Amino acid sequence: MRADAVLKKEEEAIITLMKERALGRCREAQRAYYECVRGRTLSVAWACREDARAMSACLNAHTNAATLARMKTQWAEAGKPSIEDRSRPPRCFDED
C-alpha cells in the first residue's frame, strides 16, 4: 500500500477540507462577484462575467488534483490524524 493511500471516507473528508480552504482563500473574488450580482437578474450573465471567471479561476486553482494529492500526502505523512472536527484541521494542513 502506498504511503499516501487513503480510504474513500478519508479522501472525502480531505476533499471537503480542501474546498473549505479554497473558499477562504478566494473570499475577495467571491465578494466581488456577490457585489456585482446584487440587485441584478438577467444582466448578471454579461455584467458579472469577468467577476464570475475570476472567482472560478481562484477556486479551480485551489481545488485541483495536484492540491488534493499534496494534501493526501501531507495527511498520510503526519500519521493520518483525525479530521473529524474541520473547524480545527490537523497541523499538517496549516496554511502553506
UniProtKB/TrEMBL annotation:
Superkingdom in the source lineage: Eukaryota
Region of interest (Disordered), ranges: 77-96
Instruction: Give start-end positions of Basic and acidic residues composition bias.
Output: 82-96
User: What InterPro entries does the entry give?
Assistant: Cyt_c_biogenesis_Cmc1-like
**GO-annotated cellular components:** mitochondrion
What Pfam families does the record tag this protein with? Answer: Cmc1 (PF08583)
Keywords, A to Z, come to: Disulfide bond, Mitochondrion
* PANTHER family, per database record: COX ASSEMBLY MITOCHONDRIAL PROTEIN, COX ASSEMBLY MITOCHONDRIAL PROTEIN HOMOLOG
Protein name in UniProt: COX assembly mitochondrial protein
Organism encoding this protein: Ostreococcus tauri
